[in-house]
Automatic annotation (TrEMBL), chain A:
The chain crosses the membrane at residues 7-28. Residues 54-230 are annotated as: Disordered. Residues 173-187, 220-229 have a biased composition (Low complexity). The keyword Transmembrane applies. The keyword Membrane applies. This is Cell envelope biogenesis protein TolA. Keywords: Membrane, Transmembrane, Transmembrane helix. It comes from the Bacteria. Residues 76-117, 125-156 have a biased composition (Pro residues).
From TrEMBL, chain B:
This is Protein TolQ. It is a multi-pass membrane protein. The gene is tolQ. It comes from Sphingomonas yabuuchiae. GO terms for molecular function: transmembrane transporter activity. Pfam families: MotA_ExbB (PF01618). One of its GO terms (biological process) is bacteriocin transport.
Length: 340, 230
């Protein structure tokens, strides 16, 4: 090697080092690689077939809710026992507890004056009023007497509102008792028979508007089964959007294989485990949008669709109660379309 | 400009591209880089030598035609390394050998003078154009070597696609970028080599033509002297 070549070699080495050093520190590098990134692309997931409500036995109309049977209206009609009052009151020991409520009925007289006003029974009114003041206990007889009077309106109201009989007497009692600690006892104490009294403890638990919103017409349905969780359009849209949100990153990575390929819609069937993982390879079950121009990309788009769902599984956050029902997401068919 | 080594795949840093590459591609890159360095070394050395030679030859021929006494001029320029000086020296030595004896064969002497100086010209040109074959080789082969590295790297990238089960650009792009870097280095080495080869070939041809003209002129002078010799 001549002296001149040695000089040239030194110059060349120095030049290369300088050049590659400049390139290494970014002298010619792209100013902002972020600008080169592709903008996010869109994927649309559409259910292949719109699903309707899929309750096992869908009810067009809910069965009419009926208050618990507490006895026939006839039982509640006390007038008959009232007529026989004198006999049971002295004779049966059960009436013994009844007297206790009787002191409370003393306040009842207050309602009584209201009711009697429309009614033409002057006798009961004067009797109870003086009695509470003087002797509560010794006068059991007059008390039962006024009771028949409040009991009478009860049968009348059921007739109007079609309510069970016991509910009706309950109404006046809460309205009329400002101070009573035992609201139910006086109602029981009405001249009804003993059996009826023990069998109807629940009547007063119902609100007075428990029939609100129900039509008087009897429902044609006989089903009393609770409606199952069903896959409606709303739930379906939620699941589809949840799946779409999770596979979007994978879909954004797919590259359109050629012009026209984005028109192809692939119906893809997923078998999903309960934990969201794929139970089997996604299966292509059909295509739409295939024409002579893009049919050569069909296989490629199929592969992209499968890769998209495989790449972004397991799917999280799908509603568990909609998993194992008919048309649930255990086996769901989605329509996949390439972005673009 | 931030003087920090940018090692991510998106940069154009040769170091990053080299580090990420396959070992075959690395080998190709190293070879091409050495070829590029050698090419530039030759370019620098040869251009300087060619310019010096042309300048020296111009000065030597001007001095030669001015010189009164060829023997004195030969003694003065005996150690000159210039091609024209070598050719002149070869002619003078052949002249002395041919005219040493009593009898002079004019035709034979002319033939021997022409042969001696022609062979000296060819020898000088060979010596001058010694490194040009390196430039020619690098210029013609480096692109193919770089292409080999690129093909290998792209094959490796596609293998990566098959392994990743993913055709996204993020999987393919780094490998292809590294692979293409091999071709870039190949072209980086080949383009200067081809340009320099053409340019230096032209320069060597001109030197050769100039030497031949000088040899012809000297031969003419000697031939005239031969006619006058008794």
């Amino acid at each position: 090697m001549e002296r001149g070549e040695r000089t040239g070699l030194a110059i060349a080495v120095a030049g290369h080092i300088v050049l590659f050093g400049l390139l290494s520190v970014g002298f010619l590098s792209t100013p902002n690689p972020e600008k080169l990134k592709v903008t996010p692309i869109d994927i649309s997931l559409v259910k292949d077939v719109a699903l309707e409500a899929a309750s096992p036995n869908p009810n067009e109309q809910a069965a009419q809710s009926i208050a618990p049977e507490e006895g026939l209206p006839e039982d509640a009609a006390p007038p008959e026992p009232v007529e026989a009052e004198p006999e049971p009151q002295p004779a049966p020991p059960p009436p013994a507890p009844q007297p206790k409520p009787q002191p409370q009925p003393k306040p009842q007289p207050k309602p009584e004056p209201a009711k009697p006003q429309p009614r033409p029974e002057p006798k009961p009114q004067p009797k109870p009023q003086p009695k509470p003041a003087e002797k509560p206990q010794p006068q059991p007889k007059p008390q039962p007497k006024p009771k028949p009077a409040p009991a009478k309106p009860a049968p009348a109201k059921p007739v109007r509102e079609a309510k069970p009989a016991p509910a009706a007497p309950a109404k006046p009692s809460p309205a009329a008792r400002p101070s009573t600690a035992k609201p139910s006892t006086p109602a029981r104490g009405s001249g009804q028979s003993q059996t009826a009294t023990t069998a109807k403890p629940r009547g007063s638990r119902l609100g007075d508007n428990f029939l609100k919103g129900l039509s008087p017409d009897p429902s044609p349905s006989k089903s009393e089964a609770a409606p199952a969780a069903k896959m409606g359009a709303q739930q379906l849209a939620n699941i589809a959007s949840a799946i779409q949100r999770q596979v979007q990153p994978c879909a954004n990575r797919q590259v359109t294989p050629g012009p026209g390929a984005e028109k192809i819609r692939v119906a893809i069937n997923l078998h999903i485990n309960r934990d969201g993982s794929l139970a089997s390879e996604p299966r292509v079950v059909g295509h739409t949008g295939v024409d002579g121009e893009n049919d050569r990309y069909v296989d490629r788009v199929d592969a992209l669709a499968i890769a998209t769902f495989k790449g972004c599984s397991p799917l999280r956050g799908l509603p568990q109660e909609l998993y194992d029902i008919p048309n649930g997401w255990r086996n769901i068919t989605l329509r996949y379309k390439l972005p673009g | 400009m931030n003087p920090v080594f940018n090692m991510d795949a998106a940069s154009l840093s040769p170091v990053a591209l080299f580090i990420h590459a396959d070992w075959v591609v690395k080998f190709v890159m190293i070879g091409l880089l050495l070829a590029s360095i050698w090419t530039w070394a030759i370019i620098v050395a040869f251009s300087r030598k060619l310019a010096r030679t042309k300048k020296g030859m111009t000065r030597f021929e001007r001095d030669f035609w001015k010189a009164e006494d060829i023997d004195a001029f030969h003694r003065m320029e005996q150690d000159n390394e210039l091609p024209s000086a070598r050719v002149f020296s070869a002619g003078v030595q052949e002249w002395r050998r041919s005219t040493a004896g009593g009898h002079i064969d004019r035709d034979g002497t002319r033939e021997r003078l022409a042969t001696a100086m022609g062979s000296a010209v060819a020898g000088e040109i060979d010596k001058l154009s010694d490194r040009l074959n390196v430039l020619a080789t690098v210029g013609s082969v480096a692109p193919f070597v770089g292409l080999f590295g690129t093909v290998w790297g792209i094959m490796r990238s596609f293998t990566g696609i098959a392994q990743a089960q993913n055709t996204s650009l993020a999987v393919v792009a780094p490998g292809i970028s590294e692979a293409l870097f091999a071709t870039a280095i190949g072209l980086f080495a080949a383009i200067p080599a081809v340009i320099a080869y053409n340019r230096f070939s032209h320069g060597v041809n001109r030197v050769e033509a100039s030497l031949n003209r000088f040899a012809d002129g000297f031969h003419t002078t000697l031939s005239r002297q031969l006619d006058q010799a008794r």
